[in-house]
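Exercise: predict the fold of this chain.
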Amino acid sequence: MQNPGQPTQAIDLDHVGFIVQDLSAARDLFVDLGFVLTERADHTRSDAQGLTVSAGSSQHSIMLEVGYIELMQITDARAGHQLTPATGERYGLHVLALGCADARAWHARCLQNALSVRPVMDWSRPVHTPERSGLARFAFFDAPWQPSDPSYVCWVQHVTPELVRSPSLMRHPNGARALRTLHYEGGIDELARWAAVLQDSGAQATGAAQHGAMTLRLGPSAIDLQPSAQRQQVLPSALTLAFSSLEEIERRADRLQLPRLHHSTERLSLDLRASCGLVLHAVREDGAAGP
């Protein structure tokens, strides 16, 4: 994607987003698992006249030292939210948000490289934490998207990063620290097409595909692509989060009677497909959460 002589702009995995049917129920599940969530916030956006209007969605965020998770409900189908059609296809992880330092510069770069992207938009949501309060502002743009696509891809610039990364929001009782890997499964040909889309979007391949499997890097996080004989359509299958210890989330998962798919001293895999559409891999990770 990079032109000769063009300076490199770092892209990372800013966050992933779930479209949920019941935001309160989703919040309760993650709180019970030991995550700290931001207060419920309603998204607003600037319209063509520069007025602030409802974006038709509400959310909670789970902020981590690396990346974060957004739980979002479409609250007004008439407001024109670009993800409203997703609710007619499936609930679960839809949003793949790529972090960039300058949304407008990256937007220009995408256009120069013949990528089809929509104009940059300015959104905001209120933030209230023990450390600070204010209006968190974002500049972002997205690519054309169909509800049946593996994910909705957008590029995000945090205009007010100090508001969304308050220390109190990252002190999770279960020891969660980092968003490490987003996993997809699907047919080999469909995976190859999705890998090309992700690389055009800024992800970096770590090597050639092996039997259809591939790993792509986004800063300190990764995207794992695995072929599946059971499905042709490419969909998110799992999410890997790093924890300082697995004892607390294990205890809380048992209390909630969540099915375990794998359990060892280094990894706990919880089946959240009924509520979130995927598996949660919790891995124990020593040392700093960064790259």
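Check your answer against the key: The CA atoms of residues 22 and 73 lie 7 Å apart.
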